[in-house]
Design brief:
Length: 355
């Protein structure tokens, strides 16, 4: 009886091992097929763009971190405006959800397609530095956008002084609550519970500015890894834990929207001031309606424009303008109307905060 039971156990182990091996092989096959399909589609997009845009002087590729985020959509609008002004074609590529491997694939295929120039976000230093150097080896001009690849052979970097961005957030806090109060910091992160290099500089500037105000206390600093949902949960926890909260500073638009929802729910929008980072339509409406005190924006439209303009200057051997730092602006109730008017004129938009 025991021998038979042992035999059945061994047979079960063998069948389990075979099943696991089959599932592993199946997973690998599916992964390879998906990769082939993605690469084929990328090649098709680039080749179609090249074939349909032969009348343009040059064909550039702009690889973005996340094509669905409002920030990057504004960057795209600026890039397209520059393309129209310069008579060049710009193909915008990027994942719809943040994905480093997809960005790498887009960059590899852009290099292999021998486009006239590349603009790319840099989500990771080591691999992207190698790819950027490969583009230089093939004499493809390349500009890094928003995040830089230090010590690489890129031709230019267009972005924002994130340290200064943090300082401006600190100034906005003082404007909102005065020289005394309790504040919380909600850090939106795709990196888990750690800061990426840009966020590090932003938080550093913020903290160092507030060292000048001994009576402004940061009572909570917490990471938010799931946008609006997690920011709302964190905000509820902060308001429950602390008797006095004068301001909440959010490092991404989604975190600001999550915090704003909770203030509306608890009818505390006139008690707790929210300082946001970057802007979208909902944030602008909240500022006008005094749910959010203000937002610190780095003018993504201008960044997109400057990226294409700088790349075209490099390609045509024109003198490169100093476009490294785009204007940082704090938008509040006091200046929102003039900001919207200027934005509508510059971007040919039709933003209506009353709709």
């Amino acid at each position: 009886m025991n021998n038979r039971l042992d035999s059945l156990k061994e047979l079960l182990k063998i069948k389990t091992a075979k099943l696991i091996a089959f599932l592993i092989v199946l997973f690998l096959v599916i992964t390879i097929v998906i990769s082939i399909v993605i690469n084929y589609q990328i090649n098709l997009d680039i080749n179609n763009a090249s074939n349909s845009q032969k009348d343009f002087k040059n064909h550039y590729v702009f690889i973005m971190q996340n094509t669905q985020e409002p920030f990057w959509q504004s960057v795209k609008q600026g890039a397209e405006k520059a393309a129209d002004d310069l008579g060049v074609a710009v193909e915008v590529l990027g994942p719809s959800v943040t994905n480093v491997e997809e960005e790498e694939n887009f960059l590899r295929i852009a290099i292999a397609s021998d486009v006239d120039g590349i603009i790319t976000h840099v989500p990771e230093q080591d691999t992207f530095k190698t790819l950027i150097n490969t583009a230089a080896d093939f004499d493809i001009p390349l500009v890094t956008a928003i995040t830089d690849a230090e010590y690489s052979n890129k031709d230019a970097y267009i972005g924002v002084d994130n340290y200064q961005l943090g300082i401006e957030s600190g100034k906005a806090v003082v404007d909102a609550i005065g020289k005394k109060g309790n504040i919380a910091l909600i850090v939106g992160s795709n990196e888990g519970y750690r800061l990426d290099p840009l966020q590090y500089q932003q938080i550093k500037g913020f903290n160092e500015f507030l060292k000048n105000y001994n009576d402004i206390l940061i009572i909570r600093e917490q990471y938010s890894t799931n946008g609006i949902i997690s920011a709302a949960q964190i905000t509820r926890n902060i308001l429950t834990t602390y008797n006095s909260v004068d301001a909440i500073v959010c490092t991404t638009p989604m975190e600001a929207l999550g915090a704003a929802q909770v203030l509306i729910e608890q009818k505390k929008q006139n008690v707790v001031k929210i300082i946001a980072h970057e802007e979208n339509l909902q944030i602008l409406k909240y500022i006008k309606n005094e749910v959010i005190y203000g937002t610190v924006t780095s003018n993504p439209f201008q960044i997109g424009y400057n990226c294409v303009k700088s790349l075209d200057d490099i390609k045509n051997k024109r003198e490169l303008q100093n476009n490294t730092d785009s204007n940082i602006e704090v938008i509040t109730k006091e200046n929102i109307e003039s900001y919207i008017k200027r934005k509508n004129e510059l971007e040919n938009a039709n933003i209506d905060l009353n709709s």
